[in-house]
Amino acid sequence: MKQITILGGGISGLSAAWYLAKALPATTRIVLLERSAHLGGWLNSHRSKSGTLFETGPRSLRPKGYTGLLTLNLASELGLTEELLVATKSSPASKHRLIYRGDQLHLLPYDLNSLLFKQPEVLRGTTFAFMKEPFVPARRDDADESIHDFIARRLSPKFAEDIVGAVIHGIYAGDAKNLSLKAVMPFLHEAERKYGSIILGGILGMKSDPRVKELREKLQSENPEMWGKLQDASIYSFKEGIQALSDGIVRSLKRFPNVILKTEVDCDRLEFGQVAKVVLKNGESYESDHVISTIPSTRLAPMLPKPIPTLSQTVGADVGVVNLSYAGKGVLPIDGFGYLVSPAEKEAVLGVVFDSSNIPEQDAGKDITRMTAMIGGHRFKELFGEPESVDPEHLLHVAKSTIARHIGVSKEPLESQVSIQAQCIPQYTVGHRERLGETHAHLKKLYPNQLSVTGASYLGVSVNDCVASSYELVNSLVATEFRGVTGLEKSEED
């Protein structure tokens, strides 16, 4: 019996298993191996004893674009329509997004009127920067650079530090001065390369994606109820949190007799010969026709018999996640998505999400206000030391005292929870795309037809990115009968 083994039971591994189960005959065994007891990876939602919903990882998804529609179609096929909750584009969560800079919160513009007539102090001078951007000379070479350097060069150092730096804090828990433009914001790199300008690229480079049209029509046709819910959606989640997505995949996979889900099994090494062999630390092994690794590249690297040095170079940021629940609804100074902290502030807190404002239905009628502070990120070790040695009570104190200072919420929370997520967000530093190309070449040469990779270490860190990467990998593997595919074919496009 042919066997495919998947390393890792996060959203990448689960979605890869699901797409494989749908595409392959029942005579092919699909075995998924997860080191922990939890399937879903960083998607981890639970209610406290009092019924308060806490998210320790991602908490909402964006429904737009190719990757967003892929995840929605997945949710639709899993039967999650009734669980879906949305924040509309006109909701406070969509219109009120804030930056903390200069000891105060600044409301970012959300439409043309607010951009022109209600510009916050943190954006002063940026109108002129955008007006002159088309006339800034473009770089002649195609070399990678940091996001900060690119934005500072084409717009202004102030905008790069206060706005873009804060956004990178929120998405990557990273430093815009180190992260790769090509890997994180490739559309900006392409705009300058093809059109000489971000602004001109945005205007002249707009093209409809036929994949988006196809996925949109599929969802409209197969699930008009879900499509109706999403017409004006900015973000969405589920009644019991984002883990509903991974739980839905697990439930569906358990209905396939040829799918085996194994938890609390730790892989020691991979061996390659006539077949690929996954050897566990307890001595058990799984002979496989093909292995798909969805685990962090830094964990895969030491398992391989022939080294691929570039796999060790995409390290993850450590994030302290502090969930807080306060009594009452009038706690926040403004109803909105939350706020991100400018790197110039040198704060330990990267940002705070106003959970009750984003998806209020998740409060289940309780008279509470939920929020979540993200702490550390790329500076975690500098500020606190190694994650395993940090006292959670210290992070709780940092979160409460910072929130009191930033937004004036000084009363004690009803409930709190601290999670220290080590190496949770891969950092795509300058040169990441080039390193992917090297990894792709090594995989083809050293492990042809037996090993492919997907997951957050490579082509995108968001849930939508991970689902899309698994979908595309499975499609390629099935189309080629598992020959010559590494999962990093996009690196050949650079």
Major beta-sheet overview: 7 strands, mixed
Return Rg in Å.
23 Å
What is the overall number of helices? Answer: 19
Shape: globular
> What name is given to the CATH topology of the domain at 3-42 and 242-314 and 429-492?
FAD/NAD(P)-binding domain
Q: Can you give the mean pLDDT?
A: 95
Classify the helix fraction into a percent range: 25-40%
Unreliable parts: none
Main location: mitochondrion
Keywords: FAD, Flavoprotein, Heme biosynthesis, Oxidoreductase, Porphyrin biosynthesis
Subcellular location: Mitochondrion inner membrane
Family: Belongs to the protoporphyrinogen/coproporphyrinogen oxidase family. Protoporphyrinogen oxidase subfamily.
Describe this structure in words.
The protein starts with a strand and ends in a 15-residue tail after the last helix. Helices cover 36% and strands 21% of the residues. The protein is an alpha/beta fold and 494 residues long. The mean pLDDT is 95. Among the domains are: 177 residues, FAD/NAD(P)-binding domain, CATH 3.50.50.60; 158 residues, Protoporphyrinogen oxidase, mitochondrial, domain 2 (Polyamine Oxidase, Chain A, domain 2). The radius of gyration is 23 Å and the shape is globular.
Give a topology summary.
Layout: E1 3-7, H1 11-23, E2 29-33, E3 45-47, E4 53-55, H2 65-77, E5 84-88, H3 92-95, E6 97-101, E7 104-107, H4 112-117, H5 126-132, H6 147-154, H7 157-172, H8 181-184, H9 186-195, H10 198-204, H11 210-222, H12 224-229, E8 233-238, H13 243-253, E9 259-262, E10 267-272, E11 276-280, E12 285-288, E13 290-293, H14 297-300, E14 316-327, E15 338-341, E16 349-353, H15 355-358, E17 368-377, H16 380-384, H17 392-407, E18 415-426, H18 432-446, E19 451-453, H19 463-479
Parallel strand pairs: 1-2, 1-13, 2-9, 6-15, 13-19
Antiparallel strand pairs: 3-4, 5-8, 6-7, 10-11, 11-12, 14-17, 14-18, 15-16, 16-17
Family: Belongs to the protoporphyrinogen/coproporphyrinogen oxidase family. Protoporphyrinogen oxidase subfamily.
Pathway: Porphyrin-containing compound metabolism; protoporphyrin-IX biosynthesis; protoporphyrin-IX from protoporphyrinogen-IX: step 1/1
Protein name: Protoporphyrinogen oxidase
